[in-house]
Write a structure and sequence with these properties.
PABP_HYD_C; Polyadenylate-binding protein
């Protein structure tokens, strides 16, 4: 039997469901944790940037799991982080086209600012 969350859990950002997801994550190995978080984040990101959702999700999954859970709870934080990743991708394309030799790593640009209630 798989530890994959039910479909309703994957498509909602309800704080109660996020709490349930936290419990499921605690019992799962790291790779499965990232899979579960990615499955939860992807549909939310797809609503914001459909054409780049997979790339953005992959980049955000490099963040700490606790930060990812906060993104699931806060649509504003998620939107801000998605926009930040989009800007990094645009900057990366510009640098690549200009023949720049700078090393751009997405984590250098993602803020770790977290609003604590």
């Amino acid at each position: 039997m798989s530890n994959v969350p039910p479909p309703a859990l994957l498509a909602s950002s309800n704080p109660q469901e996020t709490e349930m997801l936290s419990s499921m994550l605690a019992a799962a190995p790291l790779q499965q944790q990232k899979q579960m978080l990615g499955e939860r984040l992807f549909p939310l990101i797809q609503k914001l940037k459909d054409d780049m959702a997979a790339k953005i999700t992959g980049m955000l999954l490099e963040m700490d799991n606790s930060e990812l859970l906060l993104l699931l709870e806060s649509p504003e934080s998620l939107t801000a982080n998605v926009e930040e990743v989009v800007q990094v991708l645009k900057l990366s394309k510009t640098t690549t086209k200009a023949g720049g030799k700078e090393s751009l790593h997405p984590n250098n640009f993602l803020s770790a600012e977290v609003a604590v209630n």
